[in-house]
Amino acid sequence: MKTKLTEKLLKSISPADKPFELIDDTLPGFLVRRRPPQFE
What we know:
Blueprint: E1 2-3, H1 7-12, E2 20-24, E3 31-34
Parallel strand pairs: 1-2
Antiparallel strand pairs: 2-3
């Protein structure tokens, strides 16, 4: 999902059943990957 990554957004991310990525639409190449707890 492309979005502006902010501190508020990152703090609101909760565990998910499937891995997903948040892609910053203002900083090319920067992304956050969230994986289910069993992968951590």
